[in-house]
UniProtKB/TrEMBL annotation:
<feature type="binding site">
    <location>
        <position position="375"/>
    </location>
    <ligand>
        <name>substrate</name>
    </ligand>
</feature>
<feature type="binding site">
    <location>
        <position position="375"/>
    </location>
    <ligand>
        <name>pyridoxal 5'-phosphate</name>
    </ligand>
</feature>
<protein>
    <recommendedName>
        <fullName>Diaminopimelate decarboxylase</fullName>
        <ecNumber>4.1.1.20</ecNumber>
    </recommendedName>
</protein>
<comment type="pathway">
    <text>Amino-acid biosynthesis; L-lysine biosynthesis via DAP pathway; L-lysine from DL-2,6-diaminopimelate: step 1/1.</text>
</comment>
<keyword id="KW-0457">Lysine biosynthesis</keyword>
<comment type="similarity">
    <text>Belongs to the Orn/Lys/Arg decarboxylase class-II family. LysA subfamily.</text>
</comment>
<comment type="function">
    <text>Specifically catalyzes the decarboxylation of meso-diaminopimelate (meso-DAP) to L-lysine.</text>
</comment>
<dbReference type="Pfam" id="PF02784">
    <property type="entry name" value="Orn_Arg_deC_N"/>
</dbReference>
<feature type="domain" description="Orn/DAP/Arg decarboxylase 2 C-terminal">
    <location>
        <begin position="30"/>
        <end position="373"/>
    </location>
</feature>
<dbReference type="InterPro" id="IPR022644">
    <property type="entry name" value="De-COase2_N"/>
</dbReference>
<dbReference type="Pfam" id="PF00278">
    <property type="entry name" value="Orn_DAP_Arg_deC"/>
</dbReference>
<dbReference type="InterPro" id="IPR029066">
    <property type="entry name" value="PLP-binding_barrel"/>
</dbReference>
<dbReference type="InterPro" id="IPR022643">
    <property type="entry name" value="De-COase2_C"/>
</dbReference>
<feature type="binding site">
    <location>
        <begin position="278"/>
        <end position="281"/>
    </location>
    <ligand>
        <name>pyridoxal 5'-phosphate</name>
    </ligand>
</feature>
<keyword id="KW-0456">Lyase</keyword>
<feature type="binding site">
    <location>
        <position position="242"/>
    </location>
    <ligand>
        <name>pyridoxal 5'-phosphate</name>
    </ligand>
</feature>
<comment type="subunit">
    <text>Homodimer.</text>
</comment>
Amino acid sequence: MDHFANRSGSLHAEDVPLTAIAEAVGTPVYVYSVATMKRHAEVMLDAVAGCGSGEPLVAYAVKANPNGAVLRVLQGCGLGADVVSIGEYRRARAAGIAPERIVFSGVGKTAEEMAEALAGGVLQFNAESIEEARMLSAIADAQGKSAPIGFRINPDVEAGTHAKITTGTADNKFGIPAAEALGAYAEAERLPGLKVQGITVHIGSQLVSIAPLEAAFRRLGELIGALRAQGSDIRLADLGGGLGVPHGADQPQPALPEAYGAMVRRVTADWNCRLVFEPGRLIVGNAGVLLTRVVRVKPGASHPWLIVDAGMNDLMRPALYDAWHGIEAVTPRGAKATVNVVGPVCESGDTFAMAREMDAVEAGDLVLFRTAGAYGATMANGYNSRPLTPEVLVDGDRWALVRKRIDLSDCAEVDPDWR
Ligand SMILES: Cc1ncc(COP(=O)(O)O)c(C=O)c1O
Ligand SMILES: N[C@@H](CCCC[NH3+])C(=O)O
């Protein structure tokens, strides 16, 4: 069963007034479905229900899509937040997510970020080094507080995803090696201002198989036993995110959340820990599309160039990771064509697809990129002085602009006019 194929919730031209949105807001524009997000949140909550001791926390990885309206919808679904910067922390709080439902991850938290999050409250700081734990200890001690902390373990497991979104091998900057964990926890126990309570792991994103996750979780399980024997009261295990989403019928089909939940239940049965999950892409990836208009079709040596008004600055994933996104006409004309789909940016990397067979389209037609709800708008930038892409939320038959197009052509920089 494909949880992402429910036509009533998915963003399909027949269900969503994409043409009206494009006319009112202009293109390119990100469009997100509230119904799909809610359904994905429910699928994840159901998949992990009853896992671990106490109520599991699904802490949505804000980095996937930090739009405030999206966060408010997910808060309403009962999700917490996994944040990696004070900006994400503030957004989560502004959306009404309670401090005790927020975990603070990230390899480079600054003293200022830790101080503000500690003052505001978090469920746990996921520390990625003993150096970070020492800094947190000093900050907490100065505030007269006890900072809840867990270490992120780097289990040295190959996630089987793209190298640039693999995070759990020895060559990656993330976490502390499993072999150094006992020493790190022992030191943290001696530091003032820390409440050593947890452990966490996250090995990468868009994972198709759950076997690497299982291997990583088993390593965590071994460590929990060893840490308890050493005197650390580990009560919270944060299993990270990373579950992949389907991108198309002929693309690799990731394991379903139910299979993931069953594996977690099996592996963690005797951990006696509360569990936290940090899904990002799973919740919002297939809840969004990037809507763009064909600027022109130009002849090419192998295939015609389909030049759209979205560029690599609007959706970076194909340029960064050679990521595959479904591309469709909003109003198909019936015929098919094989084309190279590119944007207007002055880089050859500004390519969304080469030799793609898709709906035949003409200049002025609307085209959508699928699976753009995660790591789309949030990674957009203003390269080539292009505006930051606006975002629209659709709920049933109503829709609203939830981020305006941000114009970067007005020379907002401070300019001393030196010549
Ligand atoms: C620590 C951490 N948690 C959660 C996530 C969310 O990952 P995903 O969107 O693949 O579920 C990420 C991103 O890979 C991450 O770095
Ligand atoms: N930005 C990546 C995912 C990285 C997740 C963050 N650790 C993507 O678009 O696939």
